[in-house]
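Supplementary notes for students who missed Thursday's class. We covered one full example, reproduced here. Read the sequence, then the structure, then the short commentary at the end.
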Amino acid sequence: MTNPVPRRALLAAAALLAAPAPLRAQPSLRLVVIGGGFGGASAASFARRNHPDVQVTLVEPQRAFVTCPYGNLLLGGERRIGQITHSYDGLRARGVTVIHDRAAGVDAAARRVRLAGGQSLSYDRLILSPGIALRWGAIEGYDEAAAGLMPHAWVPGDGSQTLLLRRQLEAMPDGGVVGLAIPANPFRCPPGPYERISMIAHYLKRHKPRSKILALDAKEGFSKQGLFQDGWRALYGDMIEWVPGNRDGKVVRVDVRERVLETEFGTRHKVDVANIIPPQSAAAIAREAGLANDTGWVPVDTRSFEARAAAGIHVIGDANIPGPMPKSGYIASTTARQAVASAIALHRGQNPPEAVYFNTCYSHVGEEYGISVVGIFRPNADGTAIVEVPNSGGVSPRGDLPAQRRLEALHADAWYDSITGYMFG
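Structure (token representation):
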């Protein structure tokens, strides 16, 4: 015998059938995503996988995405450009409308995005993941033209900056000096410059073993410092010299013609190849829309990532101020999912879901030599700040642990394949 349907359920069903159509079905949400990197591509992919009723449009000027993660392995000779380049065809196949154009402006009041090509897009909710802008001129003598001789290789674009730096390393004579200028916090991918040092050393050890690396740093310490320096000593001997800010490591001026890096107290370092990573801010579109504060970054709600300066715009990835969370690819991806879920909930008059954010950041120090740092973050009790969950984080163990290092290098490769597979399908 079947159980009878409760009378209240029958009444509810009858009321639903009798209701006008707009009350029976939620209207489709127009979700526009600006930026097709780790934040934006993850947001578009998550929206289509989990909310197939949502109309998703992704705006990205590049026809393919070249990742910053694993770009350092290209410098070390462990990857080719095609291996870190990803097509947007998989997102199209999932039903995302992909427009290859530059978002030129946002009208938050009208909820419209203006594209450089003249098109205008209306949205119900906007996911803004525009990445960073390099602060040209923050280092005297270093502007966009100078990057053609002293590459930054920090905004991947079409990969040309990374390839330029690679060619310069190949052309440098054995016994030459590679100089790096590393900025103060905050900046994209805190361990990135030190993985770059490692991978350049990996290349030089094989091909130009008499060469040196001079790393001039505006800071007095860095992410995974002990682990990196253990690896440098074990793998590269005295090839690498790291100069912290309190020992005159802050580069304030460059002479592009002479290939000279000048520090705060007037020390001039002549180098053969220079990699200048300048100070950064949120991308121009976020600043010009009035979303950034005087730090150059965008304050956001800790649960929804809605910009504090404009309703309906959720700012993810490197452009926001994430509290103690680093500006990493993993954070961009995990917060993208929270932002999309929150955008949809808010559009439907619901509260954003409870939030927890995960970060795992792998770095390669040499061949089959990986290290990592992990952390879990969430909004505090009153939602005013994002904090690290006590005792949730940690770094790789130190010591002579070759099996551990090989395993973490494999984990790094698996992470990269997994996250890019999720993003681009």
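Commentary. The first helix runs from residue 7 to 18. The CA atoms of residues 126 and 286 lie 12 Å apart. If anything here is unclear, bring it to office hours.
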